Please model this.
Amino acid sequence: MSIQDYLHEKAEESRHNEMFAYLMFTAGAVFFIGGILETLATSTAPDWFLFLPYHLAPEPSGILGLVLTLCGIALLIYGVGMGLFYAHDRAWYMHELFKTHSVKMDTLTTKRQRKRNSKALTA
Model:
């Protein structure tokens, strides 16, 4: 396996992981909104700290809303972080792939120039 094949595979893997990170972000947004809506629907007058309910009814539905909201926030943060990490990772692989490609193109260009120079000398 050449270095270019390896870099292509790693860039593709990083792109795949980046896609899953964005899907994780989307799932976090759905959980977060679902948790807030579920808390609003089941509680009569919840007390809020920013967007987290801190005084809930002792019913399971109140706890479900809090858990959905917290899981949503965690997935949002983790999804954005991993998306940025894999995007940066893929940029590094693409930069290295560009360097290997440019080295290969330079060697081909010098071979062509040598061939032209040798034809010019023989003619």
Residues 43 and 113 are 79 Å apart (CA to CA).
